[in-house]
Fold this protein.
Amino acid sequence: MSPTARPAVSDAPLLRITAVTHRFDRRPVLSGIHLSLSPGELLVVAGPNGAGKSTLLRIAAGLLTPTSGRVERAPGTIGYAAPDLEPWGELSGRENLDCLARIRGEAGAGAEAVAWLIEAGFPSSLLAAPGATLSTGLRQRLKLAMARLGRPGLLVLDEPMSNLDEEGRLLVIRLVDEARRDGAVLLATSDAALAVSGGTTLALRVLA
């Protein structure tokens, strides 16, 4: 194998969800959800507000325990971005990425993530600005850079196109394509016009 060759990617599932149900108090949000994601796959979770898209993604990422059912994840890092998950406001964009890289034990990933962020349209002149002072569009780009840091096997993106202009929306599509080369992507959106090539759609509805 040459030094630049990549090892073969296993087709074993990175995520398997079986018969997952979730309730908030007594209100059902998810019922009998089954899904499986293997390397190279994209699953787009669609549906109206209140259908449980964010809840399902939080369960998939290990941030929420379902009321019932089984969740199996392959070993490795999960990248996650969501509207309610903000960068550290007192840290700059560069510091956010470097700090997350150190927390994950991937110190070398910080510099690569900064380079990707600049390519994603983040002005290099603002890399030292505190995260709390950035516009919503620039914070979204930073959140995406943090999610993909270290090229995780499973990338979980909740409404990744929120607060992005057309250039930013194209960035998300490129990010998804990139992530699928080595892993899988679980993406939630309420945007019926969102088109990401080669994906499967799971449509959720609001439960009575």
The first helix runs from residue 53 to 60. Residues 92-146 form one domain.
